[in-house]
TrEMBL record:
The gene is lsrK_1. This is Autoinducer 2 kinase LsrK. It is an enzyme of class 2 (transferase). Signal peptide: none annotated. It comes from the Bacteria. Residues 17-182 form the Carbohydrate kinase FGGY C-terminal domain. Keywords: Kinase, Transferase. One of its GO terms (molecular function) is kinase activity. InterPro entries: ATPase_NBD, FGGY_C, FGGY_Carb_Kinase.
Length: 247
């Protein structure tokens, strides 16, 4: 594997086990965007979830399950795919909204956000595959978002890959525990510790028909996002985030 990306889209980090490297492609503020939507627009759902004794995101996912694939063509504009050479994002927005409350409501917007996060992740995976020449058949979905069964399935459908969800979803903390276990001699290697400690609770296989539809939405999002970035370039809107040194 080359040590740098000639297109400067993804970041290459040395791994703790030489000569391996980590190809890093980041989606920005995915969890923060979901929290923003929940806290700003879903006070009623938060109260109902509290009464029912469930998580507000679980309630919103239940509502979003009834929304068709593609979320009625609502296009969220938040994080871009990673372009390390010119690292900035468009202004946060929703594009292609409808004033028909049946076609554009909280469940639709919530599903659109989950679909969009999966689309951005899919673009990032494409970039890693192109750089590494490694063809993926499955991925691991960890972190807070992995608690959502709908989001996990959407990720499988968008990427066309099998999605494995671990029991312990805080992957960074588990990785630290694995390294510590090796360091104090409980395990002989990181590989041994990983095999013993990383277990999966469920698996999501992609729906081929949904995947075809998402490929169309993926192309549409890419073209719309380019135009939204141009508005930032023209000084008409404010970027979600810019790397230091980007004017």
């Amino acid at each position: 594997m080359p040590q740098t990306d000639p297109e400067m889209n993804i970041r290459i980090n040395p791994y703790v086990i030489a000569p391996l490297v980590q190809a890093e492609s980041i989606s920005f503020f995915t969890g923060l965007t979901m929290r923003w939507f929940r806290d700003v627009f879903c006070e009623e759902e938060k109260l109902l979830a509290e009464k029912l004794g469930i998580d507000a995101y679980s309630l919103l996912e239940k509502m979003a399950e009834r929304v068709p694939v593609g979320a009625n063509n609502v296009i969220p504009i938040f994080s871009d795919a990673m372009h390390f050479k010119s690292w900035y994002h468009a202004a946060p927005s929703f594009v292609n909204l409808s004033i028909d409350p049946e076609k554009c409501n909280k469940p639709v917007l919530f599903r659109a956000l989950e679909e969009n996060a999966a689309i951005v992740s899919s673009y990032n995976l494409d970039q890693v595959e192109k750089f590494s020449k490694v063809k993926l058949s499955s991925i691991v979905f960890a972190g807070g978002g992995a608690k959502g069964k709908l989001w996990s399935q959407i990720l499988a459908d968008v990427t066309g890959l099998t999605v494995n969800v671990p029991i312990v979803k805080e992957a960074t903390a588990l990785g630290c525990a694995i390294a510590a276990g090796v360091g104090i001699g409980i395990y002989s290697s990181l590989a041994e510790a990983g095999k013993k400690l990383v277990k999966f609770e469920r698996q999501h296989t992609p729906n081929s028909e949904h995947h075809k539809l998402y490929q169309q939405h993926k192309k549409q999002w890419y073209e719309v996002y380019k135009k939204q970035r141009q508005l930032v370039d023209d000084g008409l809107t404010t970027s979600l985030w810019k790397a230091p040194g980007i004017n």
